[in-house]
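Repro case for the chain-ordering regression, as requested:
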Amino acid sequence: MKTDSTSEPRFLALLAAALFPGLGHFISGERARGGLVALGVLGLFFGGMFVGGIDVIDSKENRVWFIGQALVGPLAFGVDWVHQEHFKGYDPSVRGIVNAADLARMSRRSAYPDEKRVIEEISTNQGKFRVPVFVKAEPGSAPNRSSVGKVNELGTLFATLAGMLNLIAVIDAGFPGRPRPDRKSDENEGAKP
Amino acid sequence: MTMLAYTPFIDPIEAHSWWYLLILPCALFTSIAYKAVRVYDLRTFPKEVAVMTVQIVVVMALLGFASFLFVEKVLPLIAT
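-- result from build under test --
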């Protein structure tokens, strides 16, 4: 029985698609299709950030939505890392903490409009730690303006849709269905729809 | 309204009065990503994206109108 090689799993394409939107199709020879996947997925992801700011990508305070956003791939984790490490900080009450375990449990938050982010040394029972703390400042000193209301909801929705659509693209890149005219391997093997 | 030190992609946009228009780029990019995978021949891609975008916008508008009718007309009838 003749088998259609185009329907066999493509694990390299699957991995590439999981690493970056559209890359799986691109390395499979479907360059235009890969570009369009990237346009759609990245358009939604960065569109969400444009609408709602970096607050819409938040694995700590918005974990359920981040599960969907994480399907965009390492890019989502990178943006979340930047958000957690460079924009969030501890409440000033962190200064009263002396137990390192309590410090580890304390969660960071986004800045209020009249706060700025500074690095302070906190002394605990297990040594000193340099941590970001919010302190009172002139309005507008915050590292970013908090995203609230409809823009936050819509931005979060945009970025989560990006992840869910990228999951479809990853599956399509790794487990191709019927042959397509723009798939290079189809031409090489003479496969016709 | 303050626009102090607005940084794109870091700060949110001021779209609180026209947020509903954001369904247009949302529907467009959703259609692009979905149809990029689904269409057999990319020559039909622009048309299929346009059709799907319009479908999403129209159906969402109809659902919104249906919700409006339910809340404003049907629920008061049930309540009385």
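Ordering looks correct now. Chain B touches chain A at residues 2, 4-13, 15-16, 19, 22, 25-26, 28-37, 40-42, 45 (CB under 8 Å).
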